[in-house]
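fold-stage: in
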Amino acid sequence: MTRHTLSMAALGIVTALYTGDRRTVAAQQTHDHPAAAAPALPQADANRMRMHAEIMSAMKARDAKLSALVKTMDGATGNAKIETIATIIRELVTDQKAMHERMAEMHQHMHQ
């Protein structure tokens, strides 16, 4: 397999993982939950707002890191480009696993 073919295959994987993650986030943002039986307490609202702000901040930081890696990849050639692609794939897989863990925690918390 040539270096070009390997790079193109890796780029395809990165694109699929990255766009798949975006669709998942969009689906989560539009997912409706039935209204709670009792109104939320002010403290609960404050906690949710704080948690939302933390999640958004972490997402922005991860996006910035991925953008920097893509910029590095775009300027790289040869083995350096392949290594950067591998780093991007590792980061995306780490993000995907972390998202699944957070979703499982939230799901468990909602059903307690």
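fold-stage: in (second)
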Amino acid sequence: MKVENLRRAAGSSSPQPGMITIKPGLAVTAMLTGLSAMTVARLRRPFGTANNVILATTAAMILSRPLGLSVQRHVTTQTPNASMKIIEVKPFSFFGTPAHFVSTDNPEASTLFS
């Protein structure tokens, strides 16, 4: 995602009301690959070999991409209410990797912590 696109999104509403998207599918990929590797490794011979563990992990990584996008769309990016807005997007470098800090404002949720 380019910095210009993030800055433009900070000044306007999200593509879909109540949706904020930052990084798709990392947790889904980690869970699926870990579970598939553990499951295959616990099988008895001849199925629990290293080749089958690698094959199961590769298949899980391939399947996790569309599943991660679906989870992101329907679960992780739902804001608590429609009043949440992006205030500012600050690009920075984290150990040489580009990253962004997104500041938000949610006036309806401000009474939860007072």
